[in-house]
Structure formats: C-alpha cells, structure tokens
Write a structure and sequence with these properties.
There is one protein chain. The longest helix has 27 residues. The chain has three domains: 158 residues, P-loop containing nucleotide triphosphate hydrolases (Rossmann fold, 3-Layer(aba) Sandwich); 70 residues, Helicase, Ruva Protein, domain 3 (Orthogonal Bundle); 168 residues, Zinc Finger, Delta Prime, domain 3 (Up-down Bundle). The chain is α/β, with parallel strands linked by helices and 415 residues long. The chain is globular and about 85 Å long. It has a six-stranded parallel beta sheet with strand order 2-8-3-7-5-4, sandwiched between helices. Helix 13 packs antiparallel against helix 17. It is 58% helix and 9% strand.
C-alpha cells in the first residue's frame, strides 16, 4: 500500500542553516518520503549525514539502508528499490548521491536519467512510496522551475545548501555565518573553544572553503590535545595558507570589470609590497587567458557550432563545452610540439599560458573563465593587452608615478 501519496500535505524548502531546527521538531512518524539536497559539496554531505543519522540509526542500516552508486545509480533501479517492500526492516532508506536530475537545455542526459526516466520518478513521488520508505537524493544544482523539484517540495523536503560566492557584504556575512556554524559544531563535539583572534586568523588562511576549514579545525583540535582553547598561535603553528593570494582577487575583479573592487585590491597589493610591474604581469596573464578563451568561442561559432553560451550552467558546461576544450588544447599541444620539433613537456611555460584548461580535471575555474570572457569583446581584450605592454615599457624606461598610471589603466579596462 502506498500510504504516503497524494493525500500527504505539502512539506517545505529549507536552508542548510535551518536543518537542525527542522530535525529537532521532526518526529519519527512524520519522516518525509523524499528528500532532495543540493548545493555546496561539503554542506550537502553534512546535511545528508545529519538526515540519515536521524532517520535510521547505524545499527539498523545493514538491512534498512541502500546506497546506489556507479552503474546502480539509474532511475529504473531507484524506482525498483524504493518500491520493494522489506521483509526484514520497518524503515527503508534509499540514497543516491550526485544524481543528474536537472539536465540543462540541450545537454545530453546521463545514462539512466533520461527525460522520461525523470518523469517516471516524479510520477512515483507524486503517487507515493510504500509506508516508511524514504528516498534521499543529492545533486550539485537544482532548478526550482522544474516539475520534478515541485513534486519533491509537495511530497517531501528540499534542502538548499547553496552559498553565495560573491564579495558583497551580504554574501560575505552569509559565508561567515556558515563557517561559524561549522566551527561551533566541531568545538561542541570536542569540548573546545577558540579565541576570536584564532578564528579570524583561520579565516584569513582558508578563505571560504568549508571542507578545508573543517579539516583545519579537526587538526587544531588534535594539536591542542588536552588544552581547552585554540589560540592564534596554534593556528600559526600548523595551518598553512590555502586562501587565494589577493592578486587573484584583483585579476578576478578586472575580469568582472568591477572598477571599485579592482582598485581596492590594487591598493591592497601595493600596500603589501607588490611592485606595479608584478601587478601588470598578473593582469596581462588574465587578459591573455581571456583572449584564448574568447578565440575558442569565436572560432567554434565561425564553423557553425556553438559550444558555449553565457546561459549555460556548470553541468551543461562540463558535458557540452569541456570535451571540446580538451580537443582544442590537444590540437594546440600538437602544434607546439611541431614548432619546437620536441615534446611540449620541455615548453611547459608556453603551454600553460596558451592552454584554456591546463588541468582538464579541474573544470570549475575553466567555467568561470568562460563566464568572464563574455564581459569583453576580442577588440577590447587586444586593446587592453597593448595598453598593458605600453605601461610595462613606460615603467621600465622612465620615472613617473607608477601607482597613478596603474590605477588609470585599471579604470580604463573596467570602463
């Protein structure tokens, strides 16, 4: 009997920071039949573990928990598992991680997750599962406009673990709030405290990276041993700086054509002792990478193909654009080897500058470069490269006021 079907009342959409309160108020007889979790990977994993621990204790999992991964992670198998009655266990949880449930327009579906497959799962969710059966799904992104998402909200809960990645004060406040929450959970679990100076120093070293931040907190817990409080000296002793150097903040601001952020980070770098020529070199590298990316986009359009448009989401980029980028870089590598009449491994610096994706396995930074390339025309990029070269020559060959000249150029680029 599908006891939790069309008559079940509409549930909720939650933010990650509200999950603890939700679980505290939830009773075992009101467990949702379907739970969708999406967003930042560390927070998604954290939410998944909390929900699984609440629904089914670890000692009951051998008979009451099934995790579908690899070839098993397809919708027909999901439907079969969640619909099958258990003869041995009162509660059954079926979990699927990183399920490609929201393919973008024109994106080829993953095996076992065709449009019809997703519709079939949606219809089963709307109809209802056997009593005490629960399906937990995690995914990197979700489209709230899709009928599948609405079906989940109507029959279960959707847990939003996304975090704004911008540099607005509102975004930074939310990032800081989540890091404090992660920190406090780890401290409470271990009976420790941390000084304000230590927390600020840890943030300065890691930036907003929840997984790295949590890992460093665990290291600090072990480092202080029987001590009760983590100090700034403890952080200095064992935590290595993983936060991006401010020079990346500057080049990102320029790529976003944000003059206020760019000027702020430029002053910060100069105050930190960076030479204007170092800053010019960093900006030049960014502009060259944008030019290479822009060239790839324009060349593909000239052939009548369009492997990139600014409306693509990350999953579409990985499936549509990234394979073509890898091919493009491979052709370039062959040309460099031919020009040099030797393997390109002996020309590493040239290759790194000219490749769109020096590390094809790390796709997200490449996706960000494509997004930023849409802020410029090829003509603007070429003009900027000439301006940078002229300023570089001017600063090397004469005195003057390099700080002001650099500021003027940054304003011109972002204008």
């Amino acid at each position: 009997m599908h006891g939790r079907g069309g008559t079940e009342k509409k549930m909720a959409e939650l933010k990650f920071q509200d999950l603890d309160q939700y679980l505290n108020l939830l009773t075992k007889d009101k467990i949702p039949c379907v739970i969708l979790i999406w967003g930042e990977r560390y927070l998604t994993a954290e939410a998944f573990d909390k929900i699984l621990d609440f629904i089914i204790p670890e000692d009951q999992r051998p008979l009451g928990y099934e995790s579908l991964e690899g070839d098993d992670a397809n919708i027909p198998e999901i439907i079969e598992r969640i619909s099958t009655y258990s003869m041995m266990q009162h509660q059954l949880v079926v979990a699927v991680r990183d399920a490609p449930l929201f393919p973008g327009q024109g994106t080829p579906p993953a095996l076992g997750f065709s449009t019809q497959n997703i519709i079939n799962l949606q219809q089963l969710i709307e109809k209802g599962f056997p009593e005490h059966h629960c399906l937990i799904l995690t995914t990197t992104s979700a489209d709230k406009r899709r009928a599948f998402f609405k079906a989940v909200k109507n029959r279960g809960i959707a847990v939003d673990c996304t975090v704004p990645q911008g540099s607005r004060q509102e975004d930074k406040n939310q990032q800081l709030y989540l890091l404090r929450k992660i920190m406090q959970n780890i401290l409470d679990k271990n009976g420790k405290t941390i000084s304000d100076d230590a927390f600020k120093k840890l943030i300065d070293k890691t930036g907003f990276d929840p997984a790295v931040f949590a890992d460093n907190m665990e290291k600090l817990i072990s480092f202080v041993g029987n001590g009760k409080e983590i100090s700034a000296q403890d952080v200095s002793a064992i935590v290595k700086r993983s936060k991006h150097d401010p020079v990346f903040e500057l080049t990102n601001a320029i790529a976003e054509r944000d003059p206020f952020k760019a000027l702020f980070y430029n002053i910060s770098l100069l105050n930190a002792g960076f030479h204007p020529l170092q800053i010019i070199a960093a900006i030049t590298n960014q502009i060259r990478k944008l030019m290479v990316t822009k060239n790839f986009v324009e060349k593909s359009r000239e052939t009548g193909k369009c492997f990139w448009n600014k409306k693509q989401n990350y999953n579409q980029f990985r499936q549509i654009t990234m394979p073509e980028v890898v091919k493009y870089d491979a052709v370039l590598l062959a040309k460099i080897e031919k020009w040099n009449d030797e393997p390109a491994k002996n020309s590493k610096n040239i290759v790194r500058d000219l490749f769109i994706a020096p590390n094809p396995k790390n796709t997200y930074p490449v996706y960000q470069t494509f997004l930023k390339s849409d802020n410029f025309s090829m003509e603007k990029l070429a003009e900027t490269l000439i301006d940078l070269s002229e300023l570089d020559f001017r600063l090397k060959s004469s005195a003057g006021t390099p700080d002001i000249l650099l500021e003027n150029l940054i304003i011109k680029i972002c204008r």
